[in-house]
Amino acid sequence: MGLVGTLLGIIGFGFGIPIGLLVGYFFFIIYNPEDVKEPIIRPLNELDSESLYKVLPEIPAWLKNPDYDRVDWMNRFLFDLWPYLNKAICNTIRSSTREIFDQYIGKYCIESIEFDNLTLGSFPPIIHGVKVIEIQENELLIEPRVRWAGNCNVSVALKLFSFKFTVQLLDLQIFLAPRVTLKPLVPSFPCFSSITVSLVEKPFVDFGLKLLGVDIMAIPVLYRFAQDKIASEISNLYHWPNDLEIKILDNASGATKKPVGILHVKVVRALNLLKMDILGKSDPYVKLSLSGERLPSKKTSVKMSNLNPEWNENFKLIVKDPQTQVLQLRLYDWEKVKAHDKLGMQVVPLNSLTPYEMKEFTLDLLKNMNPNDPHNKKNRGKVVVELTFEPFREEFDKFSGILDGEGKLKSLGSASSQSSSRGGLLSVTIESAEDVEGKHHNNPYAVVLFKGERKKTKVIKKSRDPRWNEGFQFMLEEPPVNEVIHIEVMSKRRRFSWHAKESLGHVELNLADVVNNGRINDRFNLINSKNGVIHIELRWSTV
């Protein structure tokens, strides 16, 4: 009886589940209750406090919160443009998913995957208010409240074992509170280089899903589980401070990049250089620089009458984009009177380096970087260099992905903490000034004085509110905890005047707070100025 009872139980369980699903489908989907009443519609002033709390989420944000602005014009713009946006977005979805679908054809007995129907419907998203947040960064931050209750219809047909299965998504509703950041602002259209999107609240997602014509989301347990699961996954991925970054402009479009690390270069030696002098010798030296930089090149000493010079000289270069920048090495023959003769050149891509690992390169010198130039076949000698890339501590996570091994990563982290005591990089960004006024002319520019170095911004003609957005870097061997930086706004005459230059105000900033906090971004009142204010960002980065 035990074996028979077990078999009967298995058979009953196997038949009971399909019968239960059919009964549930009949009661929840096919069966339409007859006692459904029409909702009672009443004006807001007749509702009690409990009813008002229930409808509060439906009230537009601009009506509940004075920080949000009403944007009916934008909703009207979206409504008129939506038929064209609908087609454009659907075409993009088809083209981007075609490669994904092709990867599964032929696998798991799948014969084909394609869209039977794809439309976002006739109702566009509605923006219930926009809040613009003013910050002192070089970026624009807005928080719109978006609601979309669309009549979309997305059907995907899957052909499996010669049978066609259809999955249909319809009646999609999404309520979002995103934070959209346009940064950094640049003088190239569309005036920002990237869009960063994050969510400030957990989103609300509701939709219908039909499988073989049956709305499986009508099952209460499955409906609540799917709704909460999807909303939670979206929130985990993009809830602030997590974000989604969309690149708009490339590196050559005016987007200002901040330093991310230091490249240590040791020029070791050169071998078998060309004979350029009359006596059969050369006087070589090396110039080195990073691509995309306007800073003057660094130079080694000159080795007189030597075709196999030994330098062993060290240099530090500021790196802003290790994925695209290259180290440029140019060798010259020094001449006392005429122009220096070129001995050869070579480049090293920085993406070939591993952070904190020294790598030696023995490079064949070329006349130029044109691979089709026949002059590059000539033997011009070799140059030997040792390179080490050290990212700043706040940038270390971005470059640690190429490292292998947990133990190795920990050792590199300890190396970075030890190297921080050797100093770092002080970055000074002069953003703008306000209400600066001279007695004789108003052509302001800013001058930065620090440890004997003098750097200045460009001149803005005829302006009391100049915007420079220029950055300067100072490489230091130790933290500047006891140092003071002097920044002064000057004005320069344009035409003949007895007053060639005049001061519009200055500030002196103690750098101890910058070292302790890592970064300061603030506006400072100018000394010896009536109402002048200057906006400065100071950043201390260690390797």
From TrEMBL:
<keyword id="KW-1133">Transmembrane helix</keyword>
<dbReference type="Pfam" id="PF00168">
    <property type="entry name" value="C2"/>
</dbReference>
<keyword id="KW-0677">Repeat</keyword>
<keyword id="KW-0446">Lipid-binding</keyword>
<feature type="domain" description="C2">
    <location>
        <begin position="240"/>
        <end position="363"/>
    </location>
</feature>
<keyword id="KW-0812">Transmembrane</keyword>
<dbReference type="GO" id="GO:0005737">
    <property type="term" value="C:cytoplasm"/>
</dbReference>
<keyword id="KW-0106">Calcium</keyword>
<feature type="domain" description="C2">
    <location>
        <begin position="407"/>
        <end position="524"/>
    </location>
</feature>
<dbReference type="InterPro" id="IPR035892">
    <property type="entry name" value="C2_domain_sf"/>
</dbReference>
<dbReference type="InterPro" id="IPR031468">
    <property type="entry name" value="SMP_LBD"/>
</dbReference>
<dbReference type="GO" id="GO:0008289">
    <property type="term" value="F:lipid binding"/>
</dbReference>
<dbReference type="InterPro" id="IPR039010">
    <property type="entry name" value="Synaptotagmin_SMP"/>
</dbReference>
<dbReference type="GO" id="GO:0046872">
    <property type="term" value="F:metal ion binding"/>
</dbReference>
<dbReference type="Pfam" id="PF17047">
    <property type="entry name" value="SMP_LBD"/>
</dbReference>
<dbReference type="InterPro" id="IPR045050">
    <property type="entry name" value="Synaptotagmin_plant"/>
</dbReference>
<feature type="domain" description="SMP-LTD">
    <location>
        <begin position="67"/>
        <end position="249"/>
    </location>
</feature>
<keyword id="KW-0479">Metal-binding</keyword>
<keyword id="KW-0813">Transport</keyword>
<keyword id="KW-0445">Lipid transport</keyword>
<keyword id="KW-0472">Membrane</keyword>
<dbReference type="GO" id="GO:0012505">
    <property type="term" value="C:endomembrane system"/>
</dbReference>
<comment type="similarity">
    <text>Belongs to the synaptotagmin family.</text>
</comment>
<protein>
    <recommendedName>
        <fullName>Synaptotagmin-3-like</fullName>
    </recommendedName>
</protein>
<feature type="transmembrane region" description="Helical">
    <location>
        <begin position="7"/>
        <end position="31"/>
    </location>
</feature>
<dbReference type="GO" id="GO:0006869">
    <property type="term" value="P:lipid transport"/>
</dbReference>
<dbReference type="InterPro" id="IPR000008">
    <property type="entry name" value="C2_dom"/>
</dbReference>
<dbReference type="GO" id="GO:0016020">
    <property type="term" value="C:membrane"/>
</dbReference>
